[in-house]
């Protein structure tokens, strides 16, 4: 299995452009998967430079309904006519971010996307194939990002806090390896891991994803107490962690102080082989 970071907030080389967003290319023994499509077309340009032919992708996944993960979806639909795109049925329900007391910005994907050919609306746990499971059934029990409080949905004529029902995660199982892929882990990486281990029937070998430990509107990371709690929980498992994007570099450094070599940062252009 090979995983390539097509775009995230930082880059490993000046050869690759980056942006606030996420897109991963995942190649298993049976499938070529695009997990999120970034906020623009940058992921397409980087894919070409990394030798990835996105026209051959046969499975597309949108982790949740925010534009920094789905902004490039229209461009991918223009390029690729074969892949089914799996999107949670609530991903288009109007998503917003409170920038300050006065300004609320739209950060969602276009509802028209859901009407495109090859779009499959998911909910709950969704088996894509043997060893490929999408799941959104996660309880927000503990250690969730406080920055989530500024992320909203529109309910009739008012804005309310997003419950993140539209967030889905990918559990990969291949050759005995159990790997969790998350987009932003708005429901809490500790909670998502707990559910993934229930579904996998045991511990995970690797977790790859954003942990949402920083606020993109302010640039500030979460409180030390929350980050320390996340680090303690993650460190209690014999799992290797790879993170990026909404974790934020400051929060990552704080995690690494506790977790050491168990956690690494992946930037645009990086790749993993399992």
From TrEMBL:
<dbReference type="Pfam" id="PF00753">
    <property type="entry name" value="Lactamase_B"/>
</dbReference>
<dbReference type="InterPro" id="IPR052926">
    <property type="entry name" value="Metallo-beta-lactamase_dom"/>
</dbReference>
<feature type="domain" description="Metallo-beta-lactamase">
    <location>
        <begin position="21"/>
        <end position="109"/>
    </location>
</feature>
<protein>
    <recommendedName>
        <fullName>Metallo-beta-lactamase domain-containing protein</fullName>
    </recommendedName>
</protein>
<dbReference type="GO" id="GO:0016740">
    <property type="term" value="F:transferase activity"/>
</dbReference>
<dbReference type="InterPro" id="IPR036866">
    <property type="entry name" value="RibonucZ/Hydroxyglut_hydro"/>
</dbReference>
<dbReference type="InterPro" id="IPR041712">
    <property type="entry name" value="DHPS-like_MBL-fold"/>
</dbReference>
<dbReference type="InterPro" id="IPR001279">
    <property type="entry name" value="Metallo-B-lactamas"/>
</dbReference>
